[in-house]
Structure formats: C-alpha cells, structure tokens
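User: Hi! I have a protein structure encoded as tokens and I'd like to know what sequence might fold into it. I'm fairly new to this, so please keep things simple.
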C-alpha cells in the first residue's frame, strides 16, 4: 500500500475525530441556546466552523464576546498553529420545529426539568406537526418511571421507515440523559420532505382538451 493512500486515510480519520469531538464540545457548551449542529470546512489555509442554533444572538453574545471566546477555546483545545486562521460563525435555524437536533435538545431540557415523559414527548410531537412536518416520532427508552426499563414511542402523521427515502428524507437526532433512576435515551425523527419527492410518487396529468 502506498504512503499516499495511508496519508489520505489518516487525514479522513483525523477530520472525523475532530468533527465528533467539536460537535460534543459545542453540544455541551450551547445546550441552552438551541444548538442544532455544526459544519466544518477545513483546508490547508484556514478552518471555517459554522454553528447552527435557534438563539444565535445568545451564541454571539454582546459585541461578539461569546463567539470570540468559543474561537479561543477551540484554538487552544485542538492546538491550531498561530498562522492557521480559525473562523467561527453562527447561523440561525429558521424552522426550529423541523430541526431534529433542536427538538431533541428541547426534549432533553424538559425531561431534565422534571416534566413527565408522556407530557414532554407529546408536546414536542405536537410542536413539530404544527410547524408543517409530514410526520414526527419521539422514542424514549430506559427506566422512565419504574425500575424496569421499557421503550415508549410517540408518533403522529406519516414517516418513511425503510429504503433510501428513510435515510435521506428523515432527520434523526439522539441524546442520552442522566436521570435519577439511570440513563435514558431519546430519539427524535422528523419527516419533512420539503422539495424532495418520493421515488414511487405517481402524478396523474389532466388530459389536454
């Protein structure tokens, strides 16, 4: 095996590890600000980090103080060279109800605040459907109210579950929450095709006169 292919594999692995660690770091730092994901664009010249959040003004802070602080923390944590510029931006999530990451964070916050599981899950499903989604599903698993673990599913509307459309058109987000009885897992699935069309959709065209 050539050294070129090894270096390419190593570079891909390093980028994947950096993205996973950065996503986990931002998820903990911006949990209360509606963190909804991050996009990393790395080149040999510079690194651009684009954060998606519902409360983007809180992420920026007064006079961009907080986002500059995040930039300094990222530079120190991952030891970027001094001559390698790192830019951190924040974009506002326009359709909060159609963003699985934002809804999953909202559900996590409700459960940690002491809301009953059924009430919190149905509130999230209702908000997603009112935002214009075709289907929504919330899954909570673990020791929810008793010592015996179980899985509860709350859904509304229509969701594609299999095939390529189930992977490409359904947005999924997962979280683990440390509760008093133990760790529970939550998963939010949102089906909002927007401009995408199902491959088996049949359109009947009216005949011309």
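Assistant: Happy to help. Inverse folding works backwards from shape to sequence: for each of the 209 positions I chose a residue that suits the local structure. Here it is:
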């Amino acid at each position: 095996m050539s050294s070129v292919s090894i270096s390419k594999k190593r570079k891909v692995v390093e980028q994947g590890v950096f993205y996973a660690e950065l996503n986990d770091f931002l998820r903990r730092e911006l949990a209360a600000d509606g963190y909804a994901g991050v996009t990393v664009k790395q080149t040999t010249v510079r690194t651009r980090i684009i954060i998606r959040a519902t409360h983007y003004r809180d992420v920026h802070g007064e006079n961009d103080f907080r986002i500059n602080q995040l930039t300094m923390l990222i530079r120190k944590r991952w030891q970027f060279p001094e001559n390698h510029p790192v830019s951190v931006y924040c974009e506002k999530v326009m359709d909060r109800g159609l963003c699985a990451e934002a809804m999953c964070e909202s559900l996590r916050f409700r459960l940690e605040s002491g809301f009953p599981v059924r009430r919190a899950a149905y509130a999230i499903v209702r908000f997603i459907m009112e935002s214009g989604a075709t289907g929504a599903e919330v899954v909570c698993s673990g020791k929810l109210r008793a010592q015996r673990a179980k899985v509860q599913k709350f859904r509304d509307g229509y969701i594609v579950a299999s095939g390529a459309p189930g992977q490409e058109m359904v947005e999924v987000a997962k979280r683990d929450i440390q509760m008093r009885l133990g760790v529970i897992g939550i998963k939010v699935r949102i089906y909002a095709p927007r401009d995408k069309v199902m491959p088996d959709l049949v359109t009947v065209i009216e005949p011309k006169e």
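A useful reference point when you look it over: The first helix runs from residue 3 to 29. Feel free to ask if any position seems puzzling.
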